[in-house]
Sequence to fold (304 residues):
Amino acid sequence: MSVTICEVGPRDGLQNHPLVVAVADRIELIEQLSASGLPCIEAVSFVHPARVPAMSGAEAVLAGARPHPLTRLTGLVLNAHGLTRAFAAGLAELRYAFAVSDAFNRRNANRSAAEGRAGAVAAVRMAQARGVRIGVVLATAFGCPFEGEVDPGAVIDAAAELAAAGADELILADTIGVAVPRDVRRLVPRALPLGPTIGVHMHNTRNTGYLTTFAAIEAGATIVDAAVGGLGGCPFAPGATGNIATEDLVYALEREGITTGVDLDRLLKTAAWLERRLAVPLSGQLLRAGRFPAASAGRRSAKP
Ligand code: ZN
Fold:
């Protein structure tokens, strides 16, 4: 059994970080992550630089990054202008995100959820016409900070329309980290028969991110998002924690016998490098505890 980890640290992680990281360092991060064997990296977001300064220079990042040939780079798109930029940047693959809940989409994108969904359907059709692979991220699929509970039926309804339009992937996102495994076990099996590859993007805001990610894998999801070091969320805002940490996820998956293709030692080195570069402690636990068994201990025991 194997799953595809989509590394979102360079986008979801850095986007929410108070320090604006230089383009050269973002390129270095992407290349290091790629060298650790990660098959998919969400490298940039095509948002307005005045709105999200941390994501400015998406084109420069993509033009400069030299990932391993087996790593797919993707970029996040939120509207028609971002879509134009993503196509112009020559990406072979992109992700389009909108929020299923109306209040969140209005605050985030200044549009209703229905308008966001229509924009996603149009993006899928345009990407298909250009031969660009497209995944759609259904944000707030498990709960909305303004409306509370989100109806799973509404999520599946949107997912069905996007599947019919030809989306290659559908990513169910727990944007504010409220889901528990039961929510995932209810939603993922309803999304699987729609056709596209199903993935999840779970935040660890309430310490349920690993639980829900594992529940999703057991329910049949084959793409899971994570951010190196558990990057994401503002370290100065209490409770605003980020994504699940890629290296912690890799550790658990590999010990479970689920193949990720990631070199954990190399990934840990990247997490440590990033922590030094950002000069704030990251939330990943393996950074503190180390892997088990330790790589060096394994080598020692192999010798007489
Ligand atoms: Zn996120």
Q: What stands out?
A: DSSP finds 13 helices and eight strands in the chain. The chain has one domain: 4-302. Residues 12, 175, 201, 203, 243 surround zinc ion (CB under 6 Å). The chain has a mean pLDDT of 93.
